[in-house]
Amino acid sequence: MKTFAQLIKKLDSTNKTNLKVHALTNYFLNASEEDKLWTIAILSHRRPKRPVNTTLLRLWATEISGIPLWLFEESYHIVGDLAETIALIIPNTEKSEESTKSLSDYVNEIITLRTLTDSKKKAYLQENWLKLNYFERFVFNKIITGGFRIGVSQKLMTRALSKATQIDEDILAYKLMGNWTPKNTSFQKLILEHNKEDYLSKPYPFYLAYAVENNFQNDLSNISNWAFEHKWDGIRSQVIIRNDEVFVWSRGEELVTDKYPEFQRFLNVIPNGTVLDGEILPFANGEIGNFNDLQTRIGRKNISKALLKKTPVILTVYDILEWNGNDIRQKPFSERRAILDHLVSNCNCDEIGLYLSNSMEFDSWEAAEKERELSREKRSEGLMIKRKDSPYLVGRKKGDWWKWKIDPFTIDAVLTYAMRGHGRRANLYTDYTFGLWDNGELVTFAKAYSGLTDAEFQQVDAWIKKNTLERFGPVRSVTPHHVFEIAFEGIAESKRHKSGIATRFPRIIRWRKDKPIEEANTLSDLKALIPS
Amino acid sequence: MKHPLLIFNDKGIYCQQADVYIDAWRPVDKCIVTHGHADHSRWGHKQYITHIKNVSIIKHRLGDIVVTGKEWNESFTINGVKFSLHPAGHIVASSQVRVEYKGEVWVFTGDFKTENDGIAEAYEPVKCNTFITECTFGLPAFSWTPQAHVFNDINNWWSTNKENNETSILFGYSLGKAQRLLKHLDPSIGKIYTHGAVENMTTVLRENYKFPETTLITRDTTKEEIKGNIVIAPPSAHGTTWIRKMVPYVTASASGWMTFRGARRRRAIDRGFVLSDHADWDGLLTAIKATGCEKVIATHGYTEIFSRYLREELGMDARTEKTQYEEEGSEIANKEEVNS
User: Fold this and answer.
1) Considering A405, A439, A473, which residue would you say is the last residue of a domain?
2) What pLDDT digit, counting tens, does each position of A292-323 carry?
3) Given CA atoms B120, B122, B123, B124 in this order, what sign does their dihedral have?
4) Which residue in chain A has the smallest CA separation from B142?
5) Residue at which a domain ends, from A119, A145, A171
6) How far is B212 from B216, CA to CA, in rounded Å?
7) What CATH number does the domain containing B119 carry?
8) Is B262's Cβ below 8 Å from some Cβ in A?
9) Which one of A17, A116, B51, B77 has the largest count of C-beta atoms within 10 Å of its C-beta?
């Protein structure tokens, strides 16, 4: 555990990507095969199942630290992380440096722990908490409670592993996909053994668009050089059909084939040697749903039949990167679209859940603007503008692809409750609840966590601490005083919300220091925004 | 009902019998000041009383003020009320204030820590009936490691950075923390450079205290000469253009708040050393016990939580009072801006 804890400490104590990669590379060069494999598993969110519930963890931790449970809870709200809180309140003793067990020893014990009785679990945890030093204790708790977020993405880890093993990053990324666990494979088998099929699923790097700038119409000049599409609000994906297999990659360069079994239907319809670029969209009852529906699919590892029926997905495709086994990214967009149009129109594509995102042309920006205004109705987020003669580039590049999003809804609301944030915002009040007027009372309508600068958050935090009305555990009600402009993308009626309304992605866009609370909006102003 | 010896009003902690304030936050006629940090020694009082070694510090900060210096344990009586100053161990020349009238004794800690840091005069428990205490770190999550370990880590960190050809930038308040760091850095590793705010304050303190040699970074200081050495700067220097001269550098902060991983990450600092000039949880409890007091008033920090613990778990008579000293968990960088 010592070497693993030191690794995590190093990763945690720098903001510099190079140093993180360096620390991980060194670790991968020196650790035992089993520890390496578990490190990869943990950093790619394949931790063992939680062996003990957190209520018991808290109780047992307070027992050996001799503090009352309420004090633990108060501390937890301030520290903002359960594993860290427990590690902090356990006393350091002469025994704290005693443990010599390795990471894999611990993980194997934690796996077995699930099967033991509560009293044995308690004895095990209390014994080991005292045998580990503070940081090891923290890491140990993190393995138990999960959510190992230490600023190491799977990509960064893959890069380090690539440096240590001299295996190409993209190939490693593929090798690390799927449902392996350290219990059913080995470092040798998973990472080192060469496998020809590793190349089969390789996606192309995604090309990403920039948001349009002010007066972009002048810059883009001749509108006839540009093609337009609606900008769909789903999961950007590449679907690869090669050698009678389908692979689905999300933009995060994560292989998500298993999450979307619908696309297996592409086999035998879309020819081998094809790579499509498009958007995965929820599509129940023959119409595009909203992003909330899709959330239920994203989070799930195992897709049940019921879920597949409730929230089926389609691929709305807008580009083709490989055709007949050839990389065609250098062909102009218009030519690629022609191939795509031909492919989609010559198969019964609706039956396999493959739809074409229509490519449009306009004579004037006014006409384009009119189409953009229909976005909400069509369940899109606005328009994409693509230069007709552009190749498919790598990464986010300015010039050829632009996104022209519709303006969000906005409303002025009053800050009513605040809660401390987590992680880097621990101990700062950064999670806010906002209310709108309704018959002289403020009714909660949304929570927002983002949109202020660090300096503004500090100001609001200091104000909240001085203007608290009541405390409810981690939550404080505050004197209604500050008005914030809140933006959101979607709005719908909802029975689950007190206000009767649900908003999508609410965030703060401005602190309206100029507005007294009397001038904040009302609930009926908000209701008026719901599309009829 | 008898009038309490000290009350909390809108100007500060007030002794009516003597017509004297302690650490007032608004201008008053006569004010006893515990130490030189900006939230305790404010501008605008007609007359200041403080420890003799604090006189040059507050004069440096507040300019031409009327101030009387007192020795430790030297009592002075104002309208029948007997006052004396006792070491608080927080920073150089920081005091607790003992107030006695008709056999009743109150003590206000100001800010304090129980560990002897080798510069600030070591904290001394003072028997009293009512103990007014800070509790900036009044949570069981705060438990300090002895400073010898921490300084060992700091010096190792500096050595490693030097081997990597990087400059070490260590953040700490220009009054107190900066000198504590300075005192315990190992000058055999390299040269110690300072930011202007730190250098000015240190120069003032050299009158009464001994520190290793420092070099002020000026316009003429070159990148090459700083490389591999250590720079002590106030937290407010983080993220400013001043710091560019030190590239390539590694940053660290020395503060009690570094206990929390989130606090360090929020400040985008590479390394956090847990080193505080306040008492930790055990320090606070030990200090309270040592005073033998019947009543505790918690003034700033996690006051509600701390006083609840004293009441419910230790059966003490404890309450909180609002002051304008450092609020719970507030970002101390603000304080530094007032300072420098």
Assistant:
1) A405
2) 678 778 877 678 888 889 889 999 999 999 99
3) negative
4) A88
5) A145
6) 13
7) 3.60.15.10
8) yes
9) B51
